[in-house]
Design a protein that fits this description.
Layout (H helix, E strand, L loop, with lengths): L6 E8 L2 E9 L14 E3 L19 H15 L11 H6 L8 H35 L1 H9 L4 H30 L15 H27 L3 H6 L2
Parallel strand pairs: 1-3
Antiparallel strand pairs: 1-2
Helix pairs in contact: 3-5, 3-6, 5-6
Length: 233
């Protein structure tokens, strides 16, 4: 998702007046989720500050660029202290110096944990339902095997039921998730909450989990002894 950002004004300061000499793209200087504010740039020679921040985009490895920045500043003026030289990613992700994304990252971590727990519970549920169904139909499976049904056919029969149960649950979940996806918009940056690739990966993961959960009862059903099953009828 692309957004059109407001512009910032570059001002050349002259004694008693200011002149606009250029317009540049806006910089989110108050947090990624902060409101846009008016910002102005002045020449450092005309409006000096006690300290300044320099942003460098290295062409090669960022780790080697850090030392290069220190050496360059030291060559220009050895008396200028250089501190807090670190990659931009660490500034964005460090909650001790930047209150920009830690809430969103914490929310995503909690969502991931709860999603993992829900996936485990769903797989246990599919396994329990299919295991109970196989146990209730042991005599039927034994009769099918006695009449000539192959074990592969029995496995496909049980797996088909497991996949039908899983696909039904996924369809209901998608129908409920799409309208609620807008609630996640505040936790994301330049990403659609209803991204087709993400939804497709989630659907594939759920269906695969359901198939694996139904594979154990399917193997148990395929290994049923027909004589024992009919005798215990």
């Amino acid at each position: 998702m692309r957004t059109t950002l407001p512009s910032e004004i570059v001002i050349a300061s002259i004694p008693g007046q200011c002149q606009i000499v250029g317009v540049v793209r806006h910089v989110k200087d108050f947090g990624l989720n902060g409101t846009s504010r008016e910002q102005f740039y002045f020449s450092l020679e005309q409006v000096p500050f006690a300290f300044m921040t320099i942003t460098v985009r290295p062409a090669a490895d960022a780790a080697s660029a850090l030392q290069a920045v220190r050496d360059t500043v030291r060559d220009i003026d050895p008396g200028v202290p250089v501190f807090q030289v670190r990659p931009m990613s660490s500034w964005v992700n460090d909650s001790t110096v930047n209150d920009s994304t830690w809430r969103q990252r914490l929310g995503m971590v909690l969502f991931a944990v709860f999603s993992g727990v829900a996936l485990v519970l769903a797989s246990i549920g599919v396994y329990g339902v299919m295991a109970y169904s196989v146990a209730q139909q042991t005599q039927e499976i034994g009769i099918r095997l006695a009449l000539g049904a192959t074990r592969a056919l029995i496995m496909r029969l049980v797996l088909r039921r497991a996949l039908l149960l899983t696909v039904s649950g996924v369809a209901i979940g998608l129908a409920a998730a799409l309208p609620l996806a807008r609630l996640l918009g505040a936790l994301l940056f330049q990403v659609w909450a209803s991204d087709p690739a993400v939804l497709g990966a989630a659907v594939a993961l759920l269906i695969s989990t359901g198939a694996l959960a139904g594979a154990i009862p399917a193997l148990r059903a395929a290994n049923t002894d027909p004589l024992l099953a009919i005798r215990n009828r």
